[in-house]
Amino acid sequence: MPKIFISYRRSDSEDIARRICDRLIAHFGKDSIFFDVDTIPFGIDFRDFLKAEVQQCQVLIALIGPDWLSTTDSNGDRRLDNPADWVRIEIESALARNIPVIPLLVRGARLPRPNELPDSLQNLAYRNAATARPGRDFHRDMDVLISGLETLIERFIATEPSTAEAQPPSTVGWASPTSPQPPAIYPSFEFETVTVDDRGEIIARTPKTAEYCTEDLGNGIALELVKIPAGQFLMGSPDSEEGHDGNEGPQHSVMVPEFWLGKYPVTQAQYQAITGKSPSRFSENGSNRPVEQVSWYDALAFCEKLSQQTGRTYRMPSEAEWEYACRAGTTTPFHFGPTLTTDLANYDGRESYVNEPKGLYREQTTKVGSFSPNVFGLYDMHGNVVEWCADHWHGNYAGAPTDGSAWLSDGETASRVLRSGSWGFYPWFCRSADRKDRWPGYGSITVGFRVCCSAPRT
């Protein structure tokens, strides 16, 4: 059963909001729709309540009428600029989760431009909008909306297995790709994420959990993958971002299906277990350091051998998958926030990014998982080693895919994409949006990779 949250401002669209709600309830059922703040119990902090409701929904519909942007409070201040405004809370919470957010334009309204919105809502301007017109066109528009919701739910929102169908909790491995099995129940791990201000000072610590799966590579060596939920994000960086390069634009919205990504870069022990080789320069106490000095061809060969050994298809992530996984719902230069410090990642800290103090230059790789992860539970997404992606290099995003797939062109010897930063890079080269290109035979003491697997099907 889908969970759909309807966000609206009473002074702007209350009349048509109730009609829309009635149509959606008639189709999806009352329990599928959250509609009105009147349902908030007395004495409850409405901010926490609304955030909790948004956390449970799978789609948020943001009704936007002609006065949605300009509505003011009793002091004449625009309500949308108030962090405690309940409409703002609803939408920014949904955007942070990377769930589908549908702007629904009513009474002839237009989609707001990014510069008209608070920073936390600017991604809304890039979401594909629907329309609800009055009169005899209303039901036609509702039919289009409902059809779009059904397609969205079917394509990107995985249904949870029932207790009766699920495997016992002890099932930790993947479902077999060759024979039908019940959906697997995957274990979760707990971790803590941190958020910093522009001085690099930690302003928040947040406990999180994520699902993972383990591949046994033999001899006590395991490969952990983390479940990356489906979602939509804005790929690239704005011109105003410190360190922005023209190859990081134009910014564009990408819808990414669920997939699984290595919790860490591939380690030296994992690489040797699959290939029998140990190419890394930094091999002293190196079992859990990332493998380096691997070319794109080396990474491809590793994925092919791993696939043969496990019976599942492993690959390098697409560039869109990598950035989506790195950002984990953030729009700041780093998933930690507006800057980076060498307490949070392994990079060349002899230069500062913005207002943070300079830090360490370790001159080598560090053990994977030495620093705090992002919200998805992924480690070392900023620094340690740069990581190969599947895509051929393109000089910008004009014409790039919007479905999360790798952008391929003719020529197997064409340059390939590298993402993340490394122990030897300055902080601006470690941003979520930063991208580099090298020919596929290139190998360096700064270059590694992590593996990816599409969501298992049963």
Over all CA atoms, what is the radius of gyration? 23 Å
Strand order of the largest sheet: 2-1-3-4-5
The number of strands is 16
Mean pLDDT: 88
N- and C-termini, Cα separation: 20 Å
Q: Mind summarizing the main beta sheet?
A: 5 strands, parallel
What is the H/E string? Answer: EHEHEHEEHEEEEEEHHHEEEEE
In terms of DSSP E residues, the strand content is 15-25%
Overall body shape:
globular
Q: What would you call the structural class? A: alpha/beta
Q: How much helix, percentage-wise, in residues? A: 10-25%
Q: Which consecutive residue ranges, at least 5 long each, have pLDDT under 50?
A: 158-183
Annotation field: number of helices: 7
What does this structure look like?
The chain is of the alpha/beta class. It has 7 helices and 16 strands. It has helices at 10-28, 46-56, 86-97, 137-156, 268-275, 296-310, 319-327, and strands at residues 4-7, 33-34, 59-64, 101-106, 130-132, 188-196, 202-218, 221-228, 231-235, 252-256, 259-262, 386-392, 416-419, 435-438, 447-448, 452-454. The strands form 4 sheets. Strands 2-1-3-4-5 form a 5-stranded parallel sheet, sandwiched between helices. Strands 6-7-8-11-16 form a 5-stranded antiparallel sheet, covered by helices on one side. It has a 4-stranded mixed sheet with strand order 14-13-12-15, with helices on one face. The chain is globular, with a radius of gyration of 23 Å. Mean pLDDT is 88; it is low at 158-183.
